[in-house]
Amino acid sequence: MIRRLRAVDGAHAATVHVALREALAGGDAIVPTAGAVGQKPVAQTLPDRVDKRVALVVQTSGSTGHSKAVALSSDALLAGAAASESALGGPGQWLLALPAHYIAGINVLTRSITAGTDPVIYDAPRFDPVEFALAAQRMDAALRFTSLVPTQLARLLAADQTLEVLRRFDRILVGGQATPQPLLARAIEAGLNVTRTYGSSETAGGCVYDGIALAGVGIEIVDGEVQLSGPVLAEGYLGDPERTESAFELRDGTRFYRTGDTGEIVDGVLRVTGRLDDVIVTGGLKVSLGAVERIVRSISGQTEAVVVSVEHDQWGEVPVVVTTVPIGLAAVRAAVAAEERPEARPHRVIVIDELPLLASRKPDRRAIRAIAEGSARS
């Protein structure tokens, strides 16, 4: 059994909302397209028919250079929405402040559909805290939710006039990338109800809240890698059976998604520690860029800093910090050395006016690494 796959302009969230409602009800499957720089609209490369189970195709962000077309069923999307609603205390109204071609943005629309509420849509090209606050003031339901990435939360906290509006949200989900601990502490101190989410397009979005799996979701650590199971898993990667087989595994009758993230479970709580593929070899020793970045982001003012690697004549590869907030190299190296081996200490700090972002508003690590490499050659 097959059904039609049609492209929907992801720049218009209201259009995606209507099309998604129809897809979840058994209509045409949809693929919200993105016009992000450096990304080819996925609709140009996908077939016009998909398996009957597929309701949605999402192009992953490509933040590490590997963009994929993730096929999700109605069952997976609705299971994620139901589990989220249970964890949040019931159905409510959502404010959409993320792109509608990004799984976290799509989830806001899915939850609105299942809750029977109209989302407030804020889809300006650039995120503005004051405009976000004005959009939030249009919400009129008893329970109010929104979903943000850490960069957005940081900018909202920096704008004092938005705090009162933020306190009106019953829950603010923050995900898409690791949330720096200082940023989380500032949000809690400001009286915000913040929940860190963990998941991906392959798991129909966030399925672990504050380290605890949502109902029906399983977490296992296999050889240091975080693996997830449950009804939220994607069907696989459209048109790429080899990649699907590599990422999804049937084990003892249960299907798992290999996240590629490293982590541990402590007292029943998942702690993600980095990426299997972000390990570099410097001076013959392995260093996790994710671990270094976590430490750097714990330094005051550095919650948006990014750590990438550049080639080095003597050491092979070395960590480099790219940030918008000036900080001395000595301070960064001391902070990293306090928690990691000496080889993990960054070799440079590069200060730029603005970090390149993907359409998902995650850091564009390829572009950032190019900046770091260019600076190293200059």
TrEMBL record:
The keyword Repeat appears for this protein: no
Positions of the AMP-dependent synthetase/ligase domain: 48-209
MF-aspect GO terms: acid-thiol ligase activity
Source organism, top-level taxon: Bacteria
Residues of the AMP-binding enzyme C-terminal domain: 292-362
UniProt entry keywords in alphabetical sequence: Ligase
InterPro entries: AMP-bd_C (IPR025110), AMP-bd_C_sf (IPR045851), AMP-binding_CS (IPR020845), AMP-dep_synth/lig_dom (IPR000873), ANL_N_sf (IPR042099), ATP-dep_AMP-bd_enzyme (IPR050237)
Keyword Nucleotide-binding tagged: no
Name of the protein: O-succinylbenzoate--CoA ligase
Lineage: Bacteria, Bacillati, Actinomycetota, Actinomycetes, Micrococcales
